[in-house]
Specification:
The structure holds three protein chains of three kinds.
Chain A: H1 2-10, H2 16-27, H3 32-61, E1 64-65, E2 74-75, H4 79-86, H5 88-119, H6 124-138, H7 141-151, H8 157-166, H9 180-205, H10 209-217, H11 222-233, H12 235-250, H13 256-259, H14 271-280, H15 285-309
Chain B: E1 4-13, E2 17-27, E3 32-36, H1 43-51, E4 58-63, E5 66-67, E6 78-81, H2 93-103, H3 108-121, H4 137-149, E7 155-159, H5 167-184, E8 187-192, H6 195-201, E9 204-209, E10 212-217, H7 219-224, H8 229-234, E11 241-249, E12 253-257, E13 260-263, E14 267-268, E15 276-281, E16 286-287, E17 297-308, E18 312-319, E19 322-329, E20 339-344, E21 350-353, E22 361-362
Parallel strand pairs in B: 3-8, 3-9, 6-7, 7-8
Antiparallel strand pairs in B: 1-2, 1-4, 4-5, 9-10, 11-12, 11-15, 12-13, 14-22, 15-21, 16-20, 17-18, 17-20, 18-19
Helix pairs in contact in B: 2-3, 2-4
Chain C: H1 2-32, H2 37-42, H3 54-61, H4 64-97, H5 102-113, H6 121-130, H7 137-162, H8 165-173, H9 178-189, H10 191-207, H11 210-215, H12 224-235, H13 239-259, H14 261-274
Helix pairs in contact in C: 1-13, 3-13, 4-7, 4-10, 4-12, 5-7, 7-10, 10-14, 12-13
The chains are: A mainly alpha, B alpha+beta, C mainly alpha.
Chain lengths: 315, 368, 275
């Protein structure tokens, strides 16, 4: 059998049929090709149908006014987008999303870093602290949201204590247009700082001990050792945690619903809760898709610029 | 029972990297062949093509006169021992050895029947339940060999099997491999970059460079009659001295080294038109006393540097522009900066053409 | 020496404060379920004066909570199972089969990882509806698996590539085809990464809210995240009942966390660090 195959390859005038079978034989050692045909399509299909195609469809639907039944027929050009950018609640949602990013970068990540630096060494007490700080991250957002809704409740919880102590009127902070989002930001920091702390701890534990010892011999103070040695060495961890915190901020939704549902008077929406409220609950497929497209573009532009500039030299 | 034949084997990787060029070799049944060469010379690639782990870009490989180019590795009746041992970390020693048999669909008792004697032979019986990570380097090596032996293949392939071991263990494992081969007498192909392994193990050595065969021969042939300058320089430690010389003929052929004349008594390849050549002398063939030599050539030189290595001394001197190394028994007395006579065994001279690099001289009495 | 000691005390006071910030709401939640509304109002954070068990009992009263948990568990189980099977199979084609152009397909999966799941939620909803998966658990499982693929393929592939290549050669010589190698060698060696990815998918699925909210309509199908919001809707500001309910529903996650801490931390942060 094998003799036959090799001599076929030597003859110059081979029919295409034989070429195909020879190519197949050559590439199918160990059933390589059959394995490929069996192993690759499931993921490719699932991924294309449920992740990639809907993005394209969102772009298409966003040009229609459509309630999702029958075929989209009412072509409205860009009026969904025009309507969107004129809508005050959308402005608020964008602004709120921006606030989340800001708080993540200015408060959450530095807090996580300081804590990571103080408990990254292996000890019994440090493991306990790590465990505690990471706990909020594994809670479901809806559960965390409900817990904090109680804490912020004007009649119960911490706000009630607070107003009692000051002897003022009860203050329903989550119903206060000016302060509700601040309360949400507190919950966000509470929920997510432990995650970033764990990234930093993993990175810090990877810093070679002799480097820190060498810096001590060179006369570095504790602070200098942190600033000149530890932080530069965990920079890749920091870059990644910034990346995740911004992508996460752009998609905040689950926490908003139990806390405020976007209220009062649409003052606490994020991009996704806005999309949910104005697109999905009212089945405005066109309008909702337009919000989705804006969100998509924000994420992709951010991800690509961030990866091609800041993360580039890390890879 | 198994011969192996390579016919015009080529290996070209994508990007036109030509790793093996027109490799031809016929290996007889039961022979122990060593592929020797510097890294990147194509020796491992050739072995892997024989094993069926690499595609063959051109030519044919025959095992027992049957073309195996398109056969699966398992169909070629070969077994292989890898450099990193490549033991399955999640399987016990027993399971590692038995894996191929299990894949072949043998029953539990059949597997047991085959694994036991191999484990006994390699002294692995007390270790059969251990995982590879609980074994020492030498034990892992033995498991890897057991895994190869249990299938009773016609051809054994070794890909640098000892290079992960420390020097002491390497010596004893080398002996073990040699003994095993004597016992089971199967065709064996062994790839290494270590010339000591090659010299001690091989029936025949194949020396490769840049994908080409430089010389095929017994260890003696390779050492005493290197076919070209590359082989001459590659084999032997310390390396052969190379001295650029002018070749001239009056009554007979002779060369000049630093103004001193050396007569060549053997046959010089007359087809050579080139007069520029390289003279090769092994450090151990230059002596500092004329004892034991019947008709030595004498050359004067200054001792520049001297190192005592124990039973031998190694000294460097200068002949014209070239530095030479001399190895002598440490009982001899010489001092640094001393001018001394060097006695050269004429029958051990080598001469290589500068144009082709090929050997162009046959001394009268070749020690075989 | 004195200064050092001061720094150390400062550090522990700071850590205790942060720990308080993290834990007080949680303790208040657990204890709140044992208090009457009146006591909850005057004493939200302390131990209850009178331990009331009826609110907790009520959570279990109609048995619906078990159904919610069961649904969550089914969704999570199949999401993990499918992600592990499909993810390893796909990653294996990238790490070992290395077919022509595999890098493009690999990047296709990676790019998709950056896509926000929420952006195309409406077309996704229509797709699920058109495929007849609306109001079924598989309607939650399948998209969830699709969205987890990029991440898991990334982790699996880098793990598979780190396995010594001679292992594959040895297995080929021993008579393994690609599939047998995947089954007999790759999968058994991959338990650490299977655990990492499995835990990640499990936690994400257990906590998922948006997708079930979108897909499921009948209460029979609800996972606990929808159940808890509904309970809260029913009891409004009867916080003691709600807190009891929250406590009961988050307990499995916390217990699981305490037992499988190592894998959970690795699963949830490992991807970030390795990615």
């Amino acid at each position: 059998m094998s003799n036959e195959v090799t001599t076929i390859g030597k003859r110059s005038s081979t029919s295409s049929n034989q070429n195909v079978s020879r190519w197949f034989k050559k590439n199918n050692h160990g059933n390589r090709l059959l394995t490929l045909v069996l192993f690759l399509p499931p993921a490719l299909l699932l991924f294309t149908i449920f992740v990639i195609l809907p993005i394209g469809e969102a772009g298409y639907y966003s040009l229609f006014r459509w309630n999702g039944y029958g075929e989209p027929s009412q072509w409205v050009e860009f009026s969904n987008y025009v309507r969107l950018f004129k809508h005050g609640a959308f402005d608020t949602a964008v602004w709120n999303t921006f606030k989340i990013i800001l708080i993540s970068l200015v408060i959450q990540l530095p807090l996580a870093l300081i804590i990571a630096l103080s408990i990254y060494k292996k000890s019994w007490a440090n493991s306990l602290f790590r465990l505690i700080f990471f706990l909020p991250y594994i809670l479901a957002e809806v559960a965390a949201g409900l817990i904090w809704r109680f804490v912020f409740d004007g009649d119960y919880g911490v706000m009630a204590r607070f107003t009692e102590a000051l002897n003022t009127d009860t203050w329903y902070i989550l119903a206060d247009k000016n302060w509700a989002f601040v309360a949400i930001l507190v919950v966000l920091v509470w929920k997510y700082f432990g995650f970033h702390m764990m990234i930093y701890i993993a990175a810090l534990q990877g810093v070679p001990k002799d480097l820190i010892e060498a810096s001590k011999l060179d006369g570095a103070s504790r602070f200098q050792a942190i600033w000149y040695v530890k932080i530069p060495l965990i920079m890749s961890g920091i870059t990644i945690s910034i990346f995740f915190s911004i992508l996460g901020a752009l998609q905040t939704f689950d926490l908003i619903m139990p806390l405020t549902g976007g209220g009062p008077s649409n003052s606490t929406h994020t991009l996704v809760s806005y999309l949910y409220t104005f697109g999905i609950t009212r089945m405005n497929v066109g309008f909702g898709s337009a919000v989705g497209v804006v969100l998509f573009i924000c994420c992709v532009i951010f991800a690509f610029t961030y990866q091609s500039t800041i993360m580039k030299d890390k890879k | 029972m198994a011969s192996v034949e390579f016919k015009h084997i080529e290996k070209i990787y994508p990007g036109n990297v030509h790793t093996v060029k027109d490799f031809n070799l016929k290996i007889n049944d039961g022979e122990f062949i060593v592929f020797l060469g510097p890294s990147g010379c194509g020796k491992s690639t050739t072995l892997r093509m024989l094993a069926g782990l690499e595609d063959i870009s051109g030519g044919e490989i025959l095992i027992n006169n049957k073309v195996v180019n398109d056969l699966e590795p398992i169909e070629r009746d070969i077994a292989m021992v890898f450099q990193s041992y490549a033991l399955y970390p999640h399987m016990s020693v027993y399971q590692n050895i038995a894996f191929a048999l299990k894949l072949a669909g043998l029953s539990k008792s059949e597997i047991e029947e085959k694994v036991r004697p191999v484990a006994d032979m390699l002294q692995l019986t007390p270790l059969l339940d251990r995982k590879p990570r609980a074994l020492s380097g030498g034990q892992r090596q033995r498991v890897a060999m057991g895994r190869a032996m249990v299938r009773t293949p016609e051809v054994f392939l070794f890909d640098e099997p000892l290079s992960n071991l420390d020097a002491k263990l390497r010596n004893s494992m080398r002996t073990e491999i040699k003994t095993l081969h004597k016992k089971i007498k199967k065709t064996t192909i062994y790839v290494t970059h270590d010339q000591v392994e090659a010299m001690t193990l091989a029936d025949r050595i194949v020396i490769l460079r840049d994908g080409k065969v430089e010389q095929v021969g017994t260890p003696r042939e390779i050492y005493h009659s290197p076919a070209n300058k590359f082989v001459a320089g590659f084999i032997g430690s310390p390396a052969m001295n190379f001295i650029p010389v002018e070749l001239a003929k009056d009554e007979g052929w002779h060369v000049d080294i630093a103004g001193q004349k050396l007569n060549l008594l053997g046959d010089v390849d007359d087809n050579q038109t080139d007069t520029k050549a390289t003279l090769g002398i092994r450090p151990c063939d230059i002596h500092i006393t004329p004892d034991l030599l019947t008709n030595p050539l004498v050359i004067k030189g200054t001792v520049e540097n001297l190192e005592l290595l124990g039973s031998t001394i190694q000294l460097t001197s200068r002949l014209g522009d070239s530095q030479i190394t001399v190895e002598a028994p440490s009982s001899h007395m010489v001092n640094e900066d001393e001018v001394t006579n060097f006695y050269i065994d004429e029958s051990r001279l080598h001469l290589f053409s500068d144009q082709t690099g090929l050997s162009m001289y046959k001394p009268n009495a070749v020690l075989e | 020496m004195f200064a050092m000691r001061k720094i150390r005390w400062g550090k522990y006071i700071f850590l205790m404060l942060v720990a308080g910030f993290v834990l007080v709401p949680m303790f208040a939640t657990v204890l709140g379920g044992f208090k009457s509304l009146g006591e909850l109002r005057t004493n939200p954070f302390g131990l209850p004066d009178v331990w009331e068990f009826e609110y907790y009992a009520q959570v279990f009263a109609d048995g619906s909570i078990w159904l919610l948990m069961k649904n969550s568990l089914i969704i999570a189980f199949f999401s993990v199972l499918l992600t592990l099977i499909i993810g390893t199979m796909t990653a294996f084609t990238f790490s070992h089969i290395k077919f022509a152009g595999y890098k493009y397909i690999y990047n296709y999966f990676l790019i998709g990882m950056m896509f926000p799941a929420a952006a195309a939620i409406l077309p996704l909803f229509l797709k699920i509806r058109d495929l007849g998966l609306l109001d079924s658990l598989s309607g939650v499982v399948i998209p969830q698996v699709a969205f987890g693929l990029g991440f898991s393929i990334l982790l699996f592939r880098s793990f598979f590539e780190q396995l010594p290549s001679e292992l594959f050669d040895a297995a080929r010589v021993d008579g393994c085809s690609y599939i047998k190698f995947y089954w007999h060698v790759i999968l058994p060696l991959s338990t650490p990464i299977l655990a990492t990815v499995g835990v990640f998918v499990l936690v994400a699925s257990w906590n998922n809210y948006l997708l079930p909210l979108l897909v499921l309509n009948t209460e029979q199908q609800y996972p606990w995240t929808l159940g808890i919001m509904q309970y809260r809707g029913e009891y409004g500001i009867e916080w003691n009942r709600i807190l009891a309910y929250v406590t009961v529903t988050i307990t499995p996650a916390i217990v699981f966390f305490l037992f499988a801490q190592k894998y959970i931390v690795e699963g949830l942060t490992g991807g970030a660090v390795k990615g």
